[in-house]
Amino acid sequence: MDASVEDSETGPAEAREETEKERLDRNLAELLQELRVALPGVQVLFAFLLVVPFNQRFADITGFQRTVYFVTLLLATGASACLIAPTAHHRIEFRQQDKKRIVFGATKLAVFGLALLAAAMTGAVMLITDFLYHQTTVVIVAGGVALLFIVLWFAWPVKRLLDSH
Length: 165
Description:
The protein is an all-alpha fold.
């Protein structure tokens, strides 16, 4: 076994004693488990967005709200597609003996899917805030929500990555 193999959880001093195949198996299992956490959120948001147009008051929304709704629906659709795709890729390609490509591709799809999910959630908050309050509140709340996602989901882990190198 190659104990010098590094991954996202360990540095050289803490390297796991596992083969590359074992590491890829573990990385894929961890990724799929992480997706199981993210998927219910995107599914609930998507379901909410699907029923909104059937509300009696939907006909009364402004052009801005209609655009925000539609863009948010498309973002949630894209997030769903990206977050479910790794499972489909693994199921279709699992006998190809190329788990490394599956893991790296699935990781990219998951990160992109999370970015789309953050944008969709920000859009949903923007839509509801615009329905309830005035323009200034919409800008502050939507900006705050977007900043929250950027910091917690992306900037913080990227900063840790850069600090560790």
